[in-house]
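Z., the sequence and structure:
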Amino acid sequence: MSRRPDRPPVVLPSSALERDRRGENRRPLQAKAVLTVLDGTSANTVHDVLMRDQSLSGVSFLLRVSLAVGQTCRIDIPTNGLPGASYLCEVTRSRPVSNGRFEMAVQFRKPM
């Protein structure tokens, strides 16, 4: 099949050609966690969050306030209602979504 000379070739945006930047696969998740902001203007605030997905290197969740990329926080992930894992983490994504919420993503820096 040849291309018609009056039509330019179809060019995909570079984002469609880029691979996923994450080193690990994500898995969907609906689990509660507790996020404590450690620095910035909202330091020492505590938020109950519902995690949306998780990988070995981090999690994403919805939050009613926006945190800045680079802010540090602690996330406590309970296991079966008992204290579970706690991680020092850094905000890597903050973008507005519907209903005045923000989709946040944090990357684990070290276990606490």
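Confidence is low (pLDDT under 50) at residues 14-20. Residues 14-17 form the longest helix (4 residues).

Let me know what you think.
H.
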